[in-house]
Specification:
Strand order of the largest sheet of chain B: 3-2-1-7
CATH class of the largest domain in chain A: Alpha Beta
Strand content of chain A: 5-15%
CATH architecture of the largest domain in chain A: 3-Layer(aba) Sandwich
Largest sheet of chain A: 8 strands, mixed
Number of helices of chain B: 20
Helix content of chain B: 55-70%
Radius of gyration of chain A: 27 Å
Number of strands of chain B: 7
Distance between the termini of chain B: 93 Å
Radius of gyration of chain B: 37 Å
CATH superfamily of the largest domain in chain A: P-loop containing nucleotide triphosphate hydrolases
Structural class of chain B: mainly alpha
Oligomer: heterodimer
Largest interface: A-B, 94 and 95 residues
Structural class of chain A: alpha/beta
Strand order of the largest sheet of chain A: 3-4-2-5-1-6-7-8
Strand content of chain B: under 5%
Shape of chain B: extended
Order of helices and strands of chain B: HHHHHHHHEEEHHEHHHEEEHHHHHHH
Order of helices and strands of chain A: HHEHEHHEEHEHEHEEHHH
Distance between the termini of chain A: 46 Å
Helix content of chain A: 40-55%
């Protein structure tokens, strides 16, 4: 809507400018004979070209009418999404950590949908589907998915100093083939994460971890143990300042190669702050999408919806991030 | 016709041409927009025409909306844009027609209809698609039947075990000994958290790994100190500084700023003075207060002489074992194993909570803790590596493998450990695992 208003304003300004230009040149031509002669020579060919252009535009407009919008597909202005630039993760059983830079920035839903996407369309060596596990912080989405954070909390109460393979039994299988574990508040800390990751890597082809924010030790350990850490931001000033702090720490500790910024909820009406995009080497943008919110409420992965705009962006960044698991050629061959 | 009007019409024709040719908006990202359109990832070059999707527009209104686009973009860009939009519509239509047969759509319908896994499997099989992974099952690790260490020690005196075949010597299969030994000997006791080494009563034992322990003369003051967060913070901060750099002096102003950041310097100093006074005059248990030294030059420090600190013991043990470069004496192995078991926890695990409570985690002490945690972790890994090297040198690669696997999980960038683990896998005939580790850590063939 806002962009159509902008277009109307542009048309109005140019129309006004045109009137002024025409009057000024007409007056000039009456006083300057050279201008008058030039106009006499040029007006006929110009009129012909105008007619040809107008006809061409009319033919194209008539030949290609507007497509009928598909039910459910958004009809508002699409944001321009640059191609993602993410580090390729080629390790066996890679660990991808998601860090939210501000509340409600979409880290849980992105982590969940990435795991579902890999489980649904990925392949391992071309002969089987991968089995990812996704650790999600307790919240609205985990409630909608019917996940209980008590399972993992109770496990850690009974296994204080070690993690054994039985932790795998706590994970809930999603029909897509990925498995989900819900992490309640204060359930994970650095030591537990250190113990948990090797066990999960042995049992799963991909570990997607949404890191609860607020615990610096846990965040440090998550960055250290993960292959790639994705910082989930929104196009806001708050996210921009949080990104700057992360970028400083990344440069200090030489981690810039394994950190990437994901700007979620990018809308055409909200231009992205340039400060968001400076400081980190890797960037991907996920567009704002109403389909995401409606499906999250039902606990349904929007990456399985054709009409989702965010799906396209997620599929592209998954292919770049996990080229071995998302090898489509192998899938086609199978 | 007046000449001004004639000139006006001529100018209008020329100006209209300019208007129809020139786009009236920024085109910096035009290439990317066209690329995305052609790939079917966008539907419109810029914004959709006014009224698209509302469903209530008449033909005239549509024509006006389209005319506004033509005017806005200029005819050449409009034509190029419409052609690209048309292509995008085709690509999307094709993708949509294929979507119902794709894996995501089949899974989506299964989730929405809550149908059984078997239905989905049938549909996927019918289309020649791979099935989703089954639920992972936790691998149950069973204890391997190991050869008795006595057999190896008896057999290994004065000769390298690799010099002889296992069937040489007394003509008895070594496993027979081992099995007999296993059946006769009582089972090894479960590993217990080792007691800290015996200390003279005047010594202060400081346990930092896996929890705080401050032991003196058989009494542990750790929990008592932690009940007073500010006191505990000051004492532990001094300990952190002493551990990171024994020659470091902590100036009062620095300590005050760490304790109450953001407060005026006068208030900071007053608060710190009161706290230190309380600490030295009875709030802090006497053995701990005795370690605090307030120097004349306004500095404060902890005197760590006659202290036994588990972190330093761990580091010393790691350095000793690494320096042996292979076979370790049985006593050293026992001591190292006991120390490794006892130091499994993280350095000061409750520090974040304490720091948050005292100064809102705004200080710089967290960096010191992180540094010391890294030191502890490195020492543990070194110790595991040294114990594994000992097992390999004693021709016990099977016992080295769990240690190396654990060490490598904790520090995956240690190429030396990866090489050792690959060698151990090869020696135990686990060639696939050796290849996997070689690929995983990009080792030379």
């Amino acid at each position: 809507m806002a962009s159509n208003v902008a277009r109307g304003l542009r048309v109005f300004v140019w129309a006004g400018l045109s009137v002024l230009v025409v009057i000024a040149l007409a007056v000039a031509a009456s006083h300057v004979p050279q201008v008058a002669r030039a106009l006499e020579v040029a007006w006929l060919p110009a009129t012909l070209v105008v007619v040809v252009l107008a006809l061409a535009a009319a033919v194209v407009a008539a030949a290609f009418p507007w497509p009928s919008p598909v039910p459910g597909e958004p009809t508002d202005t699409e944001p321009l999404i640059p191609p993602p630039s993410l580090p390729a993760c080629r390790r066996v059983s890679p660990v991808i950590a998601f860090h939210a830079l501000e509340p409600r920035c979409g880290s849980t839903t992105l982590a969940f949908n990435l795991a579902v996407q890999v489980a649904a369309v990925g392949t391992v060596a071309g002969d089987r589907r991968p089995r990812p596990i996704c650790l999600l912080t307790a919240g609205q989405l985990t409630t909608a998915l019917g996940l209980d954070p008590a399972a993992l909390s109770n496990y850690f109460l009974s296994h204080r100093a070690s993690v054994d393979e039985s932790v795998v039994d706590l994970a809930v299988r999603h029909p897509s083939g990925c498995e989900l574990l819900c992490v309640g508040p204060d359930t994970l800390n650095g030591q537990r994460l250190r113990l948990l990751i090797p066990v999960l890597r042995r049992a799963y082809d991909l570990v997607v971890l949404e890191v609860p924010s607020g615990d610096r030790w846990l965040i440090d350990v998550a960055v250290e143990t993960s292959d790639v850490s994705l910082l989930i931001a929104r196009p806001t000033l708050k996210s921009a300042s949080a990104t700057a702090a992360w970028a400083d720490r990344a440069w200090e500790r030489g981690l810039e190669g394994k950190l990437a910024l994901i700007v979620d909820q990018a809308a055409a009406a909200k231009p992205m702050r340039t400060s968001l995009m400076s400081g980190l080497l890797h960037l991907a943008v996920v567009p704002d999408d109403r389909v995401v919110a409606t499906n999250d409420l039902k606990g349904f992965p929007w990456v399985l919806r054709f009409e989702s705009r965010a799906r396209d962006a997620l599929v592209r960044f998954a292919q770049q991030l996990l080229p071995d698991l998302m090898n489509q050629e192998a899938d086609r061959a199978a | 016709m007046p000449p001004e009007l004639a000139h006006g019409l001529e100018v209008a024709a020329l100006w209209l041409l300019v208007l129809l040719l020139v786009p009236k908006r920024r085109l910096g990202d035009l290439r990317l927009r066209l690329h995305e359109l052609r790939a079917g990832r966008r539907r419109w070059l810029f914004e959709p025409p006014g009224g698209f999707g509302s469903g209530r527009r008449t033909g005239v209104q549509r024509s006006f909306a389209e005319a506004a686009r033509i005017f806005d973009l200029g005819v050449p860009l409009y034509v190029a844009g419409r052609l690209a939009e048309e292509r995008s519509a085709h690509v999307r239509l094709e993708a949509r027609s294929q979507w119902p047969d794709s894996v995501p759509a089949l899974i989506a319908s299964q989730v929405l209809e809550s149908s059984a896994d078997a239905d989905l499997a049938g549909q996927l099989r019918a289309r020649g698609l791979l099935l989703p992974a089954e639920k992972a099952v936790g691998r149950r690790i069973e204890q391997r039947q190991a050869l008795g260490i006595k057999w190896w020690l008896e057999r290994g005196v004065g000769q390298a075990p690799s010099d002889r075949s296992p069937y040489d010597g007394d003509g008895v299969h070594p496993h027979a000994d081992a099995i007999e030994e296993l059946s006769e000997e009582p089972q090894a006791p479960l590993p217990v958290k080792p007691q800290s080494p015996a200390m003279p009563p005047t010594y202060l034992g400081i346990d930092t790994l896996g929890g705080l322990g401050l032991r003196h003369d058989g009494q542990d003051f750790g929990s008592e100190v932690m009940k007073r967060p500010v006191i505990a913070f000051i004492w532990l901060y001094l300990l952190l500084r002493a551990l990171t750099n024994p020659k470091d002096r902590v100036m009062r102003a620095e300590l005050a700023d760490e304790l109450t950041p953001g407060m005026s310097p006068e208030k900071q100093r007053t608060r710190l003075r009161n706290r230190l006074s309380n600490m030295l005059n009875g709030t802090l248990p006497a053995p701990l207060a005795a370690r605090m030294v307030v120097d004349q030059d306004e500095s404060v420090r902890l005197d760590l002489t006659q202290c036994s600190i588990d972190l330093l013991r761990l580091e010393e043990m790691a350095a000793d074992c690494v320096a042996k470069e292979g076979i370790l004496s049985p006593n050293l192995v026992d001591d190292a194993t006991v120390l490794l078991d006892g130091s499994a926890g993280e350095f000061l695990p409750g520090w974040e909570q304490l720091e948050k409570e005292v100064n809102g985690a705004r200080g710089a002490a967290g960096d010191l803790v992180r540094q010391l945690r890294q030191r502890a972790e490195t020492a543990r890994i070194d110790l595991m590596g040294a114990l594994a090297a000992n097992h390999i040198a004693r021709q016990e690669p099977g016992r080295a493998i769990p240690l190396l696997e654990q060490a490598l999980e904790r520090q995956p960038d240690r190429e030396d450990l990866a090489r050792r683990l690959r060698a151990a896998y090869l020696e135990t005939g686990q060639h696939l695992r050796a290849i996997e580790i070689q690929k995983d850590h990009a080792l030379d063939a």
